[in-house]
Amino acid sequence: MSENYFDRIRNVYAKLNSMFFKYENEVLGALMATLSRENYLLVGPPGTAKTTLVYALSKLLNAKWFYRQLTKFTDLEEILGPINIAKLLDGKVERIYANSIVESEFALLDEIFNASSAILNTLLSILNERVVYDGEKVVPVRTWTVFGASNRIPDEEELQALYDRFPLRVFTEWVSPDDTEPLIIKGWELRMDLERMEPLATMDDVQAVNKIITQYVYDHIKDISKIISPIIANYVEHIPISNRTRVKVPMYVATYLMLHGIDIGRAELTPSLLRVGTIKVLRYLVNNKDQLNEYTSFATVHMPEDLLRLSELLSEAKALINNEVYDEARQRIRDAKELLNQIRSKWDAVMVKLYTDEINELEDLLKKLEEALSESRR
Description:
Layout: H1 2-19, H2 24-36, E1 40-43, H3 50-60, E2 65-69, H4 76-80, H5 85-89, E3 106-110, H6 117-129, E4 131-134, E5 137-140, E6 145-150, H7 160-164, E7 168-171, H8 180-196, H9 203-219, H10 221-236, H11 243-259, H12 271-281, H13 291-301, H14 305-322, H15 326-346, H16 349-354, H17 356-376
Parallel strand pairs: 1-6, 1-7, 2-3, 3-6
Antiparallel strand pairs: 4-5
Helix pairs in contact: 1-9, 2-11, 9-11, 10-12, 11-12, 14-15, 14-17, 15-17
Protein name: ATPase associated with various cellular activities AAA_5
InterPro entries: AAA+_ATPase, ClpA/B, MoxR, P-loop_NTPase, RavA_ATPases
Keywords: Coiled coil
């Protein structure tokens, strides 16, 4: 039954979120890439758990994974496997592909943009076609998802084609100094979790979900496109997205909604869900870290009306408190509390879940403003 596939994958998603500290975007992107059979790039400084995330995901899915840190001196044998010496003595040039990228289901290529031109040319066919051109042979690779990790975005012209083969991207950072204590605690819990972690799903589940979602998107592409295309068109006026990536957005949106509780093919993807899913997915399609601010502004403008109104009420209350106009500030806060209660009680459960971060953030601001008002009475 398809719901079992969905449930098991969502269990993997929940487990990863519980294991890592403030890594929700990275985890979500990894699962979206996996379910879409897409390539995923993690950009950030060393020591931000990029490798650990892919390792944990492979263990939870019982997937065979391949890891290499790439340099200018990495040769093809380290990626594709060594030449078979026994065959070579017989005059045949063949590789031993066991334990190479060819036989892996997940591949993590660390510092991918530091690789030599020979490696980069080989990677392009793996990323795009899931094959290796090895001499005169075309060798299919088992690799389902390729993860790239880097501490930089390439500015070299010759690397742009490779960069575009990673349409889903996330920009990781070290946590703030104030978060050091919970980071240390969660880090030690993660170390222990990794040692005793058992699979919660399989690659068969991943492939089954991928097949269901792909078929659903194909069957409903005209209806889906009618809803999401205006949002994407508006977005690309600010942040460019290649034609190749735009075509894939419906798949990303469907996988995003599936991870948040929608059983694709059994529950209807309503226009409101498709709009929210599209807006949320677009954060993974930025070209660089600086564009995240533009994405945030875009997402804020496209929030549901109730959330926009709640944000406005709280901004007005804050300004009134700063200007010591306390009676009017109290009225704004009362209106905000009433609206927040309406959102929590009247909104569809899935919509509340999709906007959990925004709702919690506004609720935290509301509490701080209430505390400021209490201080003003003393």
